[in-house]
Amino acid sequence: MSKPVLAAVIFIGLVLVAVVYSSLGLRQYTCEVCMEFQGRTNCATASGTTQEEAQRTATDTACATISAGMTESIQCSRTLPASVTWIE
Questions:
Q1: Is the C-alpha dihedral spanning 39, 43, 65, 57 positive or negative?
Q2: Which of 1, 31, 52, 79 falls 20 to 30 Å from 41 in CA-CA distance?
Q3: Is the pLDDT of residue 22 over 70?
Q4: Which residue range is the domain that position 61 belongs to?
Q5: Is residue 54 part of a domain?
Q6: How many domains does one find in the chain?
Q7: What is the mean pLDDT of the chain?
Q8: For residue 48, what are the contacts with CB-CB under 8 A and spacing of at least 6?
Q9: Is residue 68 over pLDDT 60?
């Protein structure tokens, strides 16, 4: 294998390692949120760089399948979660 090809392979490998490392570093908080809305229940898991971001994302994801339309989605997301479980 020639030196330029070897250098390119090493460079690409380092870039991939950096991308994976930085991506994993973003998920500092993970939680599962269970929502109850109009007699329906759904749970979702999400990760975020802050606890608020993780919980908001999990709440919105859980509400997406138990609400119909934007108005219900907003109402659901403003409802207190039935449960919040933090995952390490």
A1: positive
A2: 52
A3: no
A4: 29-87
A5: yes
A6: 1
A7: 88
A8: 27, 28, 29, 54, 55, 56, 57
A9: yes
